[in-house]
């Protein structure tokens, strides 16, 4: 299985965005994405205790730094279920590292730095435990797992495009916010799933504000108050998403492949957020947009990716749809 097939197996929607990039960007971003997915799997693996996850994430950071060979990690996870696409990527981390070493010498340290820092941030949060005290805590966690991805993408885009390089100082903080936007929507979408594996990423201050305790959030008797907490999360996601659309509108219009790469996940997130607001289903199941919504967003944005006016109007349109 080649790395593009790995990509399609772990995420069809991100594969859609990545595979329309020009080859000089498609290759490094695919490889970076797979490296991040190794980190994600080690963080999320249901069969591992938090202490063991932290150990493996730290080991993965050492592999990325070149302090030990990749098989030091893959030997440790050889019993993982290879039928799980994410486990497959993790078990073949050595293959992804070899691909990383084929990239341009200027790109390798950029990718290594961001993936290593993400992995160490995840390890720190595994040691911290499944409680998020306040919004600052939540933002720190989301920065480790998603904000740094925004940094990496901005660095890679700047390497590829002199026009984007000139905007890098403006784009970098917005790129981090873009990552927080997608992660906040992911948290809303996966509230129940995360709870079932022992994690609640909702700040304690959010549910205390409406008189709830952590264990009350998913109890039917407290559904009305819990939906107020979901609304707080949705408002937070909206604030980050607005920074994400600003990021996109700053990108040069002629870089249409990069624009579309950014537009699609952002608008998918906007639509997901729209169907999550005031929706009790998010407390019992995972909120997802339909394939028809995905197709419509892709089709429409292909026509008008160049227009900042259209993008902001379409953003508002999707955010109001249920």
Give the topology.
Layout: H1 3-10, H2 12-18, H3 23-44, H4 50-65, H5 71-76, H6 85-91, H7 93-100, H8 107-128, H9 135-160, H10 162-165, H11 168-189, H12 191-196, H13 204-209, H14 223-250, H15 256-276, H16 291-304, H17 308-320
Helix pairs in contact: 1-2, 1-3, 2-15, 3-4, 3-6, 3-7, 3-8, 3-9, 4-8, 8-9, 9-11, 11-14, 11-15, 14-15, 15-16, 15-17
Q: How would you portray this structure in words?
A:
Helix 1 packs across helix 3 and helix 11 runs parallel beside helix 15. The protein has 2 domains: 1-128, Farnesyl Diphosphate Synthase; 130-322, Farnesyl Diphosphate Synthase (Orthogonal Bundle). It contains 17 helices and no strands. It is mainly alpha-helical and 322 residues long. It is 73% helix and 0% strand. The N and C termini lie far apart (39 Å).
SSE run = HHHHHHHHHHHHHHHHH
Q: Indicate the low-confidence ranges by residue numbers.
A: none
CATH class descriptor name of the largest domain: Mainly Alpha
What do we call the CATH homologous superfamily of the largest domain?
Answer: Farnesyl Diphosphate Synthase
Q: Using the CA coordinates, give the radius of gyration.
A: 19 Å
Oligomer status: single chain
Using the alpha-carbon principal axes, give the shape.
globular
User: How much strand?
Assistant: under 5%
Helical percentage:
over 70%
């Amino acid at each position: 299985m080649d790395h593009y097939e790995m990509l399609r197996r772990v995420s069809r929607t991100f594969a859609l965005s990545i595979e329309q990039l020009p080859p000089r960007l498609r290759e490094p971003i695919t490889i970076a994405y797979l490296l991040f997915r190794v980190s994600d799997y080690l963080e999320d693996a249901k069969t591992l205790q938090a202490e063991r996850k932290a150990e493996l994430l730290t080991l993965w950071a050492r592999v990325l730094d070149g302090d030990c060979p990749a098989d030091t990690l893959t030997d440790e996870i050889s019993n993982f279920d290879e039928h799980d696409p994410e486990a497959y990527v993790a078990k073949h981390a050595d293959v992804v590292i070899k691909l990383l070493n084929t990239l341009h010498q200027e790109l390798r340290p950029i990718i290594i730095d961001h993936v290593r820092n993400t992995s160490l941030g995840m390890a720190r949060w595994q040691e911290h435990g499944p409680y998020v005290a306040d919004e600052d805590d939540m933002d720190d966690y989301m920065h480790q797992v998603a904000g740094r991805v925004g940094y990496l993408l901005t660095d890679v885009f700047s390497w590829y495009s002199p026009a984007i390089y000139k905007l890098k100082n403006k784009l970098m903080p917005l790129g981090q916010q873009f990552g927080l936007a997608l992660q906040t929507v992911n948290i809303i979408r996966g509230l129940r799933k995360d709870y079932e594996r022992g994690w609640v990423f909702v700040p304690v201050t959010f549910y205390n504000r409406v008189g709830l305790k952590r264990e009350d959030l998913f109890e039917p008797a407290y559904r009305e108050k819990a939906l107020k907490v979901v609304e707080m999360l949705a408002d937070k996601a909206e604030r980050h998403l607005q920074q994400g659309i600003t990021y996109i509108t700053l990108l040069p219009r002629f870089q249409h492949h990069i624009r579309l790469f950014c537009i699609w996940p952002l608008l998918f997130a906007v639509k997901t957020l729209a169907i999550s607001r005031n929706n009790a289903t998010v407390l019992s199941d995972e909120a997802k947009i339909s394939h028809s919504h995905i197709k419509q967003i892709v089709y429409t944005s292909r026509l008008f990716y160049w227009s900042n006016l259209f993008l902001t109007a379409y953003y508002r349109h999707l955010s109001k749809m249920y």
